[in-house]
Amino acid sequence: MASRDQEVTLLSAWPSVFTMRVKLALVLKGIEHEDIPQDLGNKSKILLESNPVHKKVPVLIHKGKPILESAIIVHYIDEVWPETSPLLPQDAFLRAQHRFWSDFIDKKLFDSLIRFLRSNGDAAVNEEFNQNCLLIEGALAELGSEEEGPFFGGASMSFLDVLLAPYAVWIPGVEQVMGLKPAKCPRFHKLLAAASEHPSAKAALPQVEKLKEFIRVRFASK
């Protein structure tokens, strides 16, 4: 690998949606890195020093410098290693749209899924999550090309596809353990199905069965 690939470390927690997307970006681009799993109940010195503000994972450390927040990290990875599997579109308008929807995914989609888990399966929160999924469905119709492939990037995974790929394991996990009733979003579900079968995602994401056990212990037992 090129010299830019040297000294890449990921501070991670395997169940985290945000860790998963960073791992996927690294695998997609073939970036060799050291993965250091973190015990978030007993935060390590390296985590506290690397992310003193939020004290959260993931943290990407590249040549001794920490990069924080998963969407920012994925963007950074794409800028530093642009040659392989480019993620953000070249067109400035489309890049702006990707940034808009990345914000929506983190502030709306993720938030409603976590609140569903914490509410022990509240129907109103389920409906809110479904409305957010329907908005993703609309974004796919606007920005993607079904003829070219299932992803926002057509046949190839793009920035938004990397951010959404962890939901390919999280949505079925929550559905099977907590009774989530997903909305009918054929294009979004097709994207998630394609993501789950992508070789890089298979290498980067946990199995649904493993995640289901985490959900049972973390949420269903309360």
From TrEMBL:
One GO cellular component term: cytoplasm
Cross-referenced CDD domains: GST_C_Tau (cd03185), GST_N_Tau (cd03058)
EC identifiers of the protein: 2.5.1.18
PROSITE patterns according to UniProt: GST_CTER (PS50405), GST_NTER (PS50404)
Source species, domain of life: Eukaryota
Reaction(s) catalysed by this chain's protein: RX + glutathione = an S-substituted glutathione + a halide anion + H(+)
GO biological process terms held by the UniProt record: glutathione metabolic process
Record-annotated GST N-terminal domain positions: 6-85
Signal peptide segment: none
Cited Pfam families: GST_N
Domain GST C-terminal: 91-219
Keywords: Transferase
Gene Ontology MF: a single term: glutathione transferase activity
Annotated InterPro entries: Glutathione-S-Trfase_C-like, Glutathione-S-Trfase_C_sf, Glutathione_S-Trfase, Glutathione_S-Trfase_N, GST_C_Tau, Omega/Tau-like, Thioredoxin-like_sf
Protein name: glutathione transferase
